[in-house]
């Protein structure tokens, strides 16, 4: 027993030591660069999954293992830890810092809650639709980083409103219990799960009171535990022991679980909707752009992939996955009560009225919009417009004004320009006194460097950098080519099975490798595979491209997941549990789409002349 307790105490240490040792035969026996890279990949993946080490610390493992194995030099590995994504993150965090500093996110969240209502399920759907729409035009990372502060504030307001409403109902909230628990009844009563209660027969009537006030929660609990036997006239009295009433503890725990579930659902809805929304447009995510570039380069005779055709094939997929994901998250963390969710036109309960009143009072406390809030809103809109108009796809964007430097400016360029303005624009304006004179304030920008540092998730930046380093290592060591070469025998299988296996493999690989790296690896393999089995390449490439974005399982699977995870409301297993369901939903919907409505759009059952 003592040994077992020691093992439990030191389980993380044992996992850290034993994982590399148990996997060590892989590079020692199979002395290839692919095996050495696979060894590093397995060690990091296990540490990420179990959180034996801090996630950022685990992400640094490739920085010393790749040079020791001779896979990549230290300078090459180091360059992978700071990419264009990090510059984009810096710019977006400047915006997020200003939003949070001046409470603009709280204003938006409260306003949205007032419009949609305090029902967490409907509010979650509203946030998912908003984030998915933004992600159609912006990068998934930008959409998640902008919406998450608003969602966080909205969840906090709902939790506060729920807590204040619960305080009115909470049994024995001051810790005292009246032992004279009396019922005006004609039935024999049994408590099925309260050993602290003793049953006595008495002809007296009794009242259930706590501090001279009727406790309806206790009444409802007693009613739920009644076992009724007709034909008896016993009047029972329940005498409580000195131990705390068991129901109170159970009740409190259930409320805490619900509050935790609300935070988890709302965090995950942002991460997943940002990824799902990016599927809708060619410019919505980098994997779509890589696919379009690869396809148009390999098959210049086909002009079928454009902004319009992609939108038509993907918008039904996005809508279906979004709705099913919403249902899944609700059921998984909060339960899905159709009766309460769809009670249109019915009168609000006392709890809902109390919660709504708290929200209205909080909104009134904010007062009118301040000057810093207005400036933050203007810069937010400007950043969004610049992102949207850089390369919209269907019309020339502002990047076309620099034809000599095509591809030089990215979303990070816009984010850094706007982010710099937050350090320049003053936070206060002149104000007039009663004499009509201007009062001069000391110059203070909208945000300071210390405020930015407090909001910048440096740990997440290292975490994502570790993912980039692993992706580069897999490519340099040719581990990715080895995995892809194993797909060659798929040509002898039925077409639907070939597509399904391709989708499942791509979905699995993209959980540990970056999405762009995964699609870059598999497109050159799947295109010849389609040609070899004499199938329209789009039949295999479209579902594989869509499934490359289904990185839902781990915080490091994509930057949107990492940003949401950094708020501290989720564990890795929460994300794995929820993401597994979303992955299954996504693959199922993509399979349904490629076998039904996408077929007539590209005439997929006909082998094209351009292939």
UniProtKB/TrEMBL annotation:
A Pfam family assignment: Na_sulph_symp
Cellular component terms (Gene Ontology): plasma membrane
Source organism superkingdom: Eukaryota
Keywords annotated in UniProt: Ion transport, Membrane, Sodium, Sodium transport, Transmembrane, Transmembrane helix, Transport
Methyltransferase keyword on record: no
InterPro entries recorded: Na/sul_symport_CS (IPR031312), SLC13A/DASS (IPR001898)
Signal peptide: none
PROSITE patterns reported for this sequence: NA_SULFATE
Topology versus the membrane: Multi-pass membrane protein
GO MF entry, a single one: sodium:sulfate symporter activity
Localization: Membrane
Transmembrane segments: 12-30, 42-69, 81-99, 119-138, 262-290, 310-333, 370-388, 408-425, 495-526, 538-557, 578-602
Family named by the database record: Belongs to the SLC13A/DASS transporter (TC 2.A.47) family. NADC subfamily.
Annotated protein name in UniProt: Solute carrier family 13 member 1
Species for this entry: Aptenodytes forsteri (Emperor penguin)
């Amino acid at each position: 027993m003592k040994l077992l307790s020691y093992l439990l105490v030191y389980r993380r240490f044992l996992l850290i030591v034993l994982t590399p040792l148990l996997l060590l035969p892989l590079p020692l026996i199979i002395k290839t660069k692919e095996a050495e890279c696979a060894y590093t990949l397995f060690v990091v993946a296990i540490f990420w999954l179990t959180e034996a080490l801090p996630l950022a610390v685990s992400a640094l493992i490739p920085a010393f293992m790749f040079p020791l194995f001779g896979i990549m030099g230290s300078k090459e590995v180091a360059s992978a830890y700071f990419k264009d994504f990090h510059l984009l993150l810096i710019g977006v965090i400047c915006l997020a810092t200003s939003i949070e500093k001046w409470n603009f996110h709280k204003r938006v969240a409260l306003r949205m809650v007032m419009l949609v209502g305090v029902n967490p399920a409907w509010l979650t759907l509203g946030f998912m639709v908003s984030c998915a729409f933004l992600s159609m035009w912006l990068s998934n990372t930008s959409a998640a980083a902008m919406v998450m502060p608003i969602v966080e504030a909205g969840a906090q307001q709902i939790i506060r409103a729920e807590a204040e409403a619960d305080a009115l109902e909470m049994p024995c909230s001051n810790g005292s219990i009246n032992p004279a628990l009396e019922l005006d009844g004609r039935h024999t009563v049994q408590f099925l799960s309260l050993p602290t209660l003793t049953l006595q027969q008495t002809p007296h009537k009794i009242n259930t009171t706590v501090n001279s006030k009727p406790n309806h929660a206790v009444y409802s609990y007693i009613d739920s535990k009644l076992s009724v036997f007709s034909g008896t006239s016993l009047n029972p009295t329940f005498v409580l022991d000195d131990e705390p009433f068991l129901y109170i503890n159970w009740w409190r725990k259930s409320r805490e679980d619900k509050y935790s579930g609300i935070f988890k659902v709302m965090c995950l809805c942002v991460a997943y909707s940002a990824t799902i929304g990016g599927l809708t447009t060619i410019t919505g995510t980098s994997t779509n752009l890589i696919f379009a570039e690869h396809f148009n380069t390999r098959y210049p005779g086909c002009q079928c992939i454009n902004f319009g055709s992609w939108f038509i094939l993907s918008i039904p997929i996005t809508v279906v996955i979004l709705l099913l994901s919403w249902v899944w998250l609700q059921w998984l963390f909060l339960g899905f009560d159709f009766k309460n969710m769809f009670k249109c036109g019915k009168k609000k309960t006392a709890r809902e009225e109390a919660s709504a009143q708290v929200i209205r009072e909080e909104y009134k406390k904010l007062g009118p919009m301040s000057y810093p809030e207005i400036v933050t809103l203007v810069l937010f809109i400007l950043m969004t417009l610049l992102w949207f108009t850089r390369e919209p796809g269907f019309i020339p964007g502002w990047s076309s004004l620099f034809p000599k430097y095509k591809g030089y400016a990215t979303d990070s360029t816009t984010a850094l320009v706007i982010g710099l303005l937050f350090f320049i624009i003053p936070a206060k304006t002149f104000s007039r006194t009663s004499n009509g004179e201007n009062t001069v304030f000391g110059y203070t920008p909208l945000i300071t460097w210390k405020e930015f540092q407090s909001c910048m998730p440096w740990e997440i930046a290292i975490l994502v950098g570790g993912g980039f380093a692993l992706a580069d290592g897999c490519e340099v060591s040719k581990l990715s080519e080895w995995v892809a070469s194993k797909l060659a025998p798929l040509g002898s299988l039925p077409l639907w099975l070939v597509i399904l296996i391709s989708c499942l493999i791509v979905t699995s690989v993209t959980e540990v490798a970056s999405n762009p790296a995964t699609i870059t690896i598999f497109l050159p393999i799947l295109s010849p595979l389609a040609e070899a089995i004499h199938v329209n390449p789009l039949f295999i490439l479209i579902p594989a491209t869509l499934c490359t974005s289904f990185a839902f399982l781990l915080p490091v699977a994509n930057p949107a997941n990492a940003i949401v995870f950094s708020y501290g409301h989720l564990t890795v297993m929460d994300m794995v549990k929820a993401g597994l369901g979303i992955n299954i939903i996504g693959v199922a919907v993509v399979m349904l789409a490629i076998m039904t409505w996408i077929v007539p759009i590209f005439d997929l059952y006909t082998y094209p002349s351009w292939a």
